[in-house]
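Sequence, please.
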């Protein structure tokens, strides 16, 4: 078992981050999409109750994942196309920025917030703090859907590289084969 990455494939830790976060991101968008298409349905109430908590978990994981990626930066598989690197970086950036803006809004709203029961924000009385809530209200939704579009493009390109003649199949790198 290779914990670290190599030029040929991603190691166990990177693969764990990648597939674990892929599952969590799928969950995150399931909660957001259900919110949009079936607000206040029983399914929405069940799923939405987890949105903020899984969003915070994603933020923690992306920080750890970025640190691990940096520690392995000289020994990772090379990008196969010019768009791969900026695309991957954009996904990192959005998974960092979206929950950060959302947490700023949460704090600025004055409402208490305890992700997974941990008392992160005690909440406060009085007016909400406009400069903390405004950025998320302006950009959050759009950035969220942009992330979803990038992820769909990422999955499609993985399949294109796998099946198009002459391309390098990159899936085995992330499957550890
Ligand atoms: C990577 C993490 C996250 C992603 C990908 C994400 C994505 C989304 C998406 C796509 C929406 C729907 C936007 C729309 O209605 O058009 C949404 C809404 C929302 N998110 Fe997140 N989110 C994340 C983290 C968080 C966190 C950490 C919090 C709170 C602490 C949060 C709070 C909210 C709230 C309150 C809404 C509803 C906003 C509204 O009704 O205008 N999200 N999120
Ligand atoms: C079924 C879904 C997915 C498939 C089949 C897939 C496939 C892959 C493959 C094959 C690679 C290696 C690419 C290369 O080295 O050129 C990769 C890397 C990567 N993928 Fe995915 N992916 C999926 C979902 C996701 C999701 C949901 C995210 C974002 C949360 C994501 C983010 C990344 C990133 C950032 C990399 C670069 C390696 C790293 O820094 O971890 N992927 N993916």
């Amino acid at each position: 078992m290779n914990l670290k990455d190599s030029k040929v494939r991603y190691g166990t830790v990177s693969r764990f981050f990648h597939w674990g976060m892929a599952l969590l991101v799928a969950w995150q968008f399931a909660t957001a999409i259900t919110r949009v298409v079936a607000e206040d349905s029983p399914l929405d109430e069940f799923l939405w109750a987890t949105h903020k908590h899984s969003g915070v978990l994603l933020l923690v994981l992306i920080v750890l994942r970025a640190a691990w990626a940096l520690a392995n930066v000289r020994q990772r598989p090379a990008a196969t196309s010019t768009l791969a690197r900026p695309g991957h970086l954009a996904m990192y950036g959005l998974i960092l920025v979206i929950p950060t803006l959302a947490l700023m809004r949460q704090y600025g709203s004055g409402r208490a917030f305890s992700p997974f029961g941990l008392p992160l924000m005690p909440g406060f009385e009085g007016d909400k703090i406009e400069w903390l809530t405004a950025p998320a209200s302006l950009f959050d939704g759009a950035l969220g859907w942009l992330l979803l579009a990038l992820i769909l493009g990422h999955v499609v390109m993985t399949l294109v590289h796998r099946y198009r003649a002459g391309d390098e199949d990159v899936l085995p790198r992330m499957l550890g084969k």
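The pocket of protoporphyrin IX containing FE (ligand 1) is lined by residues 28, 32, 36, 51-52, 55-56, 58, 95, 98-99, 102-103, 106, 141, 144-145, 147 (CB under 6 Å).
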